[in-house]
Design brief:
Layout lengths: L14 H5 L27 H4 E7 L8 E3 L8 E6 L2 H9 L10 E5 L2 E2 L2 H10 L2 E7 L4 H15 L2 H12 L29 H8 L1 H7 L6 H15 L35 H8 L6 H8 L6 E2 L1 H4 L3 E2 L10 H8 L3 E4 L5 E5 L2 E3 L1 H8 L1 H12 L1 H16 L11
Antiparallel strand pairs: 1-6, 2-3, 3-4, 4-5, 4-6, 7-8, 9-10, 10-11
Helix pairs in contact: 5-9, 6-7, 6-9, 11-15, 11-16, 13-15, 14-15, 15-16
Protein name: L-ascorbate peroxidase
Family: Belongs to the peroxidase family.
Pfam families: peroxidase
């Protein structure tokens, strides 16, 4: 299940090295110590705060009283119900290590990762030595992401992280596999990814430390974080499917950005050359471009400067309205790149082509006049983008 076979690239062209950012330490440089100050995660920031031990000794005729949520793809057993029996006795006797609904069993009598064997041991072993993590469920993960995105205002960069992880698919190879987190070359060093390994990934470090790999992979986390961010910023609810696999070396990801990610200084022809091989239509291209309704360009990363809209943290159809209704003047920024300016906001040439190309403009006008139409078309194209190059994914984490 998932994308184990899609991640190795045969693309060995040298442009990745030419685009490389200054080499940084492989992330995370200091596990457990976020590089950027972030809010505490549920259950505590350190493993010492989150993990606790439970010893249960079964007696004849007495039920265990511990119901768990078993799914073969998981590596933990989330606690659903404490229903009396030995488990309830433990909770009364050990209030400082009380088992709670929403905590997850990560080890049973020395067994980790194999949930089928862990569950079997819970059924047949007379004594159970359990290691449990507080607040380790999908609901807690979403709540931690919502908290991070709301407090740090980092929704746009979460969207960009997921887009660039999956967008390397070129119709032949490449897929979302979190290769960008691994220093030394490849996707980590792409010029198009500047700022993502240095800002976006460290923002997620405290959440990653808790949930990866116990509950979710890095690449699934990045997809979920983007979809939570879109909702937090006022956008549509987007379904996230799970089962992406993380590579363990940068060489397992793609090695060249050529023909994979769009450049901001190009035209409609370039957008079609990038997106058509991925299976997208003109409508999809315009809908996906609407993600520029949030976020901003940073000169030191992309060579472009400024936000697309006046409220860079609001996901709506303002991007299309501004494209059509504002007066735009071309300018040259410090990097030498050309872009368009209207007051404090800017547009790239790949934005302006959406109203210059007649086929693109048809959809831009539609989305400017109908936010619901934009949301529906964006959702459909965005889910396909997040799953490019993947095999069968599942609905439940």
């Amino acid at each position: 299940m998932g994308n184990t076979q899609c991640c190795k690239s045969v693309d060995t062209s040298p442009d990745a090295a030419a685009e490389a950012m200054p080499t940084l330490e492989s992330w995370p440089a200091n596990p457990g110590k976020p590089l950027i100050e972030v809010p505490a995660v549920s259950g505590g920031n350190s493993p010492q705060e989150r993990m606790y031990k439970v010893s249960l000794v079964k007696t004849e005729g007495q039920k265990l009283g511990l119901d768990v949520d078993y799914m073969a793809e998981r590596s933990v057993l989330p606690i659903l119900v404490i229903s009396g029996g030995i488990a309830e006795q433990w909770n009364r006797s050990h209030p400082e290590r009380k088992m709670n609904t929403g905590d997850s069993i990560v080890e049973v009598n020395g067994i980790r990762g194999n949930v089928a064997l862990m569950l079997e041991k819970c059924k047949v072993d007379a004594t159970l030595e359990l290691t449990i993590c507080k607040c380790l469920t999908y609901g807690h993960l979403v709540a931690d992401l919502e908290k991070l995105i709301s407090i740090k205002g980092c929704g746009p960069i979460m969207v960009r992280l997921s887009w660039h992880d999956a967008g390397v698919f070129n119709g032949v190879d490449g897929c979302p596999n979190a290769a960008m987190r691994l220093a030394g070359g490849g996707e980590y060093a792409f010029g198009a990814n500047a700022g993502l390994p240095q800002v976006a990934i460290p923002l997620l470090q405290a959440i990653s430390d808790k949930y990866v790999p116990r509950l979710i992979s890095h690449s699934d986390l990045w997809a979920l974080a983007a979809n939570v961010a879109i909702k937090v910023m006022g956008g549509p609810d987007i379904v996230t499917h799970f089962g992406r696999f993380d590579v363990q070396a940068h060489s397992e990801g793609v090695q060249s950005a050529a023909g994979r990610l769009p450049d901001g200084d190009k035209d409609a022809k370039h957008l079609r050359e990038i997106f058509y091989p991925k299976g997208f239509t003109d409508k999809d291209i315009v809908a996906l471009s609407g993600a520029h309704t949030v976020g901003a360009c940073h000169g030191e990363r992309s060579g472009f400067e400024g936000p697309w809209t006046d409220d860079k943290l609001k996901f709506d159809n303002t991007y299309f309205k501004d494209l059509l209704n504002k007066k735009w003047t071309m300018e040259t920024v410090k990097s030498g790149n050309k872009q368009y300016r209207s007051g404090k906001t800017m547009m790239l040439t790949t934005d302006m082509c959406l109203i210059e190309d007649p086929k693109f403009k048809e959809y831009a006008v539609q989305y400017a006049n109908d936010q619901n139409a934009f949301f529906e078309d964006f959702k459909e194209a965005w889910v396909r983008l997040q799953e490019l190059g993947c095999g069968q994914l599942r609905d439940i984490l």
